[in-house]
Structure prediction request, 253 residues.
Amino acid sequence: MQDKVYIVTGGSRGFGLAIAKALVEQGARVGLVSRNQSGLDAAVAEIGSDHAFAVATDVAHKQGLQAAFTAIKNHFTRLDGLVNNAGMARPNAVENLVEEEVLLQVNTNFLGTVFACQAVIPLLRGAQNPRIINISSASAWHYDEMSHLSIYAATKAAVERFTRDLRLELQPDGIGVTCVRPGGAWTSFADGWEAQPFKAGLDAWHDSGTYMDTGMEVANVADAVAYSLLQPPGVAVDLLEIRPNIPTPKVSL
Ligand SMILES: NC(=O)c1ccc[n+]([C@@H]2O[C@H](COP(=O)([O-])OP(=O)(O)OC[C@H]3O[C@@H](n4cnc5c(N)ncnc54)[C@H](OP(=O)(O)O)[C@@H]3O)[C@@H](O)[C@H]2O)c1
Prediction:
């Protein structure tokens, strides 16, 4: 990965920051994208400004992404790949979901991934062994995840289906496309969740008799992304699911 340049959306914290740090440890440089400048500034300070450069934008806005990705490529004078990691969830029962919550999840998780891929494809053509990694979620396919995440899980299932077609479309360009599907790891993911619908989701999950493994480290997800980026030309990990393997008790609020 020496001197390669990868963009990581949602790179200011959680999985994104861990991914950025793992890539830099292997010699790469990273362009970080998220909405809040203060979070990006802190991430750049942690990684070091020689290896990290950040542009604030919302992945739900295609023009902002195009400008941010171009600025990152210009800054480092090259671009080798994109990790579409920015994402969010708003747990709620379907009946109680308000339009704003639905749109926020669809626009960030699904359309944000689509727009970012559209923005990056022309910037990656001609690079040596370019890569796109789309981050999904175990909740897209496994029913033992927390309840009341229907829209979130559906957006991630949409990302996975979209990624399969993108993989085929970009084969002639030599751009490798991978879906990484992580299970649970503690991050700031639930920080903005409202207490009442969060509790209702947890209660329903408790009643359902299923369990969700948690306790994986963010570094494990970062390693899965690095492994996918490191494949040789002509080979691409298709779908990589990584999940915790420790039974953990259900948490209550
Ligand atoms: N944590 C888990 O257990 C888990 C499991 C499976 C999959 N995932 C997926 O992994 C990814 C990262 O999750 P995480 O747990 O690291 O979440 P997190 O700690 O909440 O971090 C989310 C990151 O995305 C950025 N972001 C959110 N909305 C954005 C938007 N509209 N435009 C640009 N940036 C945005 C945030 O920065 P700003 O707020 O400043 O924009 C932040 O950098 C997500 O796609 C999530 O669905 C997480």
Remarks:
- Strands lie at 5-9, 29-34, 52-56, 81-84, 131-135, 176-182, 239-242.
- The radius of gyration is 18 Å.
- DSSP finds seven helices and seven strands in the chain.
- The chain has a mean pLDDT of 94.
